[in-house]
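Whiteboard transcription, Tuesday session. T.W. wrote the C-alpha cells on the left side:
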C-alpha cells in the first residue's frame, strides 16, 4: 500500500491503473539504465563527428556515470522533500530534455556538459521506479513488481551497446539521445496521470552541505578514477593517484559524518537489517563479476575472432533476452522455495557458464559462443530477482526510496569496478602470455622450426610465415588470458554461496 500526502495508507492499484504503471515505470528505468552504456560503442563516431580525439570522447561516458552515481544516493532525501511521484516526473522530464540537448550538441564540450546534466537528472529515476512499483502493487504481487524492475535493470546494460552500435551504423549518432525524448515524456505523463493523486508524504528535512560535499567529491572521484584508470596506466598517472586518494579520503569522511550528524543524507541505519546488508553485498559482487564477463566477451570476439560489432552484439544478446522469459517463472518460484536456495542455484549456474567459457579456442563457432550466453541468461533471472527481493523485504514504504537509491548507487559503483578490473587484467595477462609464447619462436626451438617449415611448404615466404605465427600467438595469448579470468570469476561465484547463507530465512 502507498501513503497519501497526510500519511494515510491508500489501497494498492488494480486493473488498468496497475497495468499503466507496470508499463511506464520500467520504461523509464530501461531508458535511463541503457544510457549508461549505449554511448560506449558510439564514442569513436561521436568524437570524429565533433572533431575530437577518442580519449577526449570518453568523457561522454565518464561525465554521465559520475553525476549519475552522485545523484543516486540522494534519492531518499529528495523524495522526502518533493514527494516520490513529483520527483520521478520532474526527473524523467529533465532527463528527456537533457537528452534532446545531447542530440543537438554542436561540440564535444557542449555534449559533455549536457551529459553531466543528464546524469544528474536521471539519478532518481531508477530507485523511484522500484519504490513506486512496490508501494502501489498489491502485497501478494510485490514479488512480481520486484521481478519487473530487476529484469529491466539487468537487461538494459547489455542491450545498450547493441542498440548504440546499430543506431550509429545505420543512422546519425544523435538519435541515441533523441529517442529518449518521446519515451521519457510518455512515461512521465502516464505516471503523473495514474499516481498524481497518490503522492507520498512530504517534509522539509535538514540539508547538510558538508555531507553532500563529501558525497559528491568521493563518489565522483571514484567513478572518474574507474573510468579513466585503464587508459592512463592506473597508478603510473599522477591524476589517477590523486583521484584514488580523493575517493578514499572523502568516502571515509562521508561515512564518519553520516554516522554522527543529526541530518544524514544516507540512511546508513538500513545496514542494521541483516538481509539488506547481505543483499547489497551479493548484488554488488555479483554484478561486478557478471558485467565484467559481459564486457570481456564482445572485446574478445571483435579483436580475436573477427566478429563485427553487430555480430558480437547478436552473440551477446541472449544473456539480456532470456531473463525476460524466465523472470515470471522465478517470481512464482520465490513464493514456494527458500530464496537462499534459488540464489545459490543461480551462482552455481553462473560458475558452470564461466567454466564453459574457459574452453575457448581459435576455431570456436557461433553456437559455442551463444550456448553459455543463453544459459547465463537463465542464471541472471535466478540471481537478480531473488537478491533484490531478499534485500527489500521488510523495508518500510517510507524508507523504500532511500534504500533503493543506496542499493542502486553501490551496485553501480561495483559494476564500474568490475568492468575496469576485468579489462585491465585481461590486457596485462595477455601481454604476459604473449611474451611467454613468443619466447618459443625467438629461441627457434624444433617445434617453431617445424611450424615455419610447414608454412613454407604451403607456399608462404619466411616473412609471411613469421607474421602469421605472430598473429596466432597474439590470438592464443588473448584467449588464454580470457580463460584465466573466466575461471577466477567461476570460483568467485561459488565463494559467494557462503555469503548467501548469512541471510535470515525467517524474514524471507
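and on the right, the sequence the group agreed on:
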Amino acid at each position: 500500500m502507498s501513503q497519501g500526502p497526510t500519511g494515510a495508507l491508500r489501497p494498492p492499484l488494480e486493473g488498468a491503473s496497475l497495468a499503466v504503471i507496470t508499463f511506464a515505470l520500467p520504461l523509464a528505468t530501461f531508458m535511463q539504465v541503457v544510457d549508461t552504456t549505449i554511448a560506449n560503442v558510439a564514442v569513436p563516431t561521436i568524437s570524429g563527428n565533433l572533431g575530437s580525439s577518442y580519449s577526449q570522447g570518453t568523457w561522454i561516458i565518464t561525465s554521465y556515470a559520475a553525476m549519475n552515481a552522485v545523484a543516486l544516493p540522494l534519492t531518499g532525501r529528495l523524495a522526502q522533500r518533493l514527494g516520490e511521484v513529483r520527483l520521478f516526473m520532474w526527473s524523467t522530464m529533465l532527463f528527456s530534455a537533457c537528452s534532446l540537448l545531447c542530440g543537438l550538441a554542436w561540440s564535444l564540450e557542449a555534449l559533455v556538459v549536457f551529459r553531466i546534466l543528464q546524469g544528474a537528472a536521471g539519478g532518481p529515476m531508477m530507485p523511484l521506479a522500484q519504490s513506486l512499483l512496490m508501494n502501489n502493487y498489491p502485497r501478494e504481487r510485490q514479488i512480481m513488481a520486484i521481478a519487473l524492475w530487476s529484469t529491466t535493470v539487468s537487461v538494459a546494460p547489455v542491450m545498450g551497446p547493441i542498440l548504440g552500435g546499430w543506431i550509429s551504423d545505420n543512422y546519425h549518432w544523435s538519435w541515441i539521445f533523441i529517442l529518449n525524448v518521446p519515451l521519457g515524456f510518455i512515461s512521465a505523463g502516464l505516471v503523473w496521470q495514474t499516481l498524481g493523486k497518490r503522492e507520498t508524504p512530504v517534509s522539509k528535512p535538514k540539508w547538510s552541505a558538508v555531507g553532500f560535499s563529501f558525497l559528491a567529491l568521493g563518489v565522483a572521484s571514484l567513478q572518474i578514477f574507474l573510468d579513466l584508470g585503464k587508459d592512463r596506466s592506473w597508478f603510473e598517472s599522477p591524476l589517477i593517484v590523486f583521484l584514488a586518494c580523493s575517493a578514499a579520503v572523502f568516502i571515509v569522511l562521508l561515512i564518519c559524518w553520516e554516522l554522527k550528524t543529526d541530518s544524514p543524507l544516507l540512511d546508513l541505519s538500513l545496514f542494521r537489517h541483516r538481509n539488506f546488508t547481505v543483499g547489497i553485498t551479493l548484488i554488488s559482487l555479483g554484478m561486478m563479476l557478471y558485467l565484467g564477463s559481459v564486457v570481456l566477451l564482445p572485446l574478445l570476439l571483435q579483436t580475436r575472432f573477427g566478429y563485427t560489432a553487430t555480430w558480437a552484439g547478436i552473440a551477446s544478446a541472449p544473456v539480456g533476452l532470456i531473463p525476460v522469459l524466465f523472470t515470471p517463472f522465478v517470481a512464482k518460484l520465490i513464493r514456494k522455495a527458500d530464496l537462499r536456495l534459488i540464489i545459490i542455484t543461480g551462482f552455481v549456474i553462473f560458475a558452470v557458464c564461466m567454466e564453459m567459457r574457459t574452453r575457448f579456442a581459435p576455431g570456436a563457432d557461433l553456437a559455442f559462443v551463444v550456448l553459455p550466453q543463453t544459459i547465463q541468461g537463465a542464471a541472471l533471472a535466478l540471481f537478480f530477482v531473488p537478491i533484490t527481493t531478499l534485500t527489500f523485504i521488510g523495508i518500510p514504504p517510507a524508507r523504500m526510496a532511500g534504500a533503493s537509491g543506496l542499493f542502486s548507487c553501490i551496485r553501480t559503483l561495483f559494476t564500474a569496478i568490475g568492468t575496469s578490473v576485468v579489462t585491465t587484467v585481461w590486457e596485462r595477462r595477455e601481454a604476459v602470455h604473449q611474451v611467454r609464447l613468443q619466447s618459443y619462436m625467438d629461441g627457434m626451438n624444433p617445434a617453431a622450426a617445424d611450424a615455419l617449415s610447414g608454412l613454407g611448404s604451403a607456399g608462404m615466404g619466411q616473412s609471411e610465415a613469421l607474421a602469421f605465427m605472430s598473429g596466432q600467438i597474439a590470438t592464443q595469448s588473448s584467449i588464454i588470458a580470457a580463460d584465466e579470468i573466466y575461471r577466477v570469476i567461476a570460483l568467485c561465484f561459488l565463494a559467494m554461496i557462503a555469503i548467501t547463507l548469512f541471510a535470515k530465512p525467517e524474514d524471507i
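Someone added at the bottom: The CA atoms of residues 96 and 182 lie 8 Å apart.
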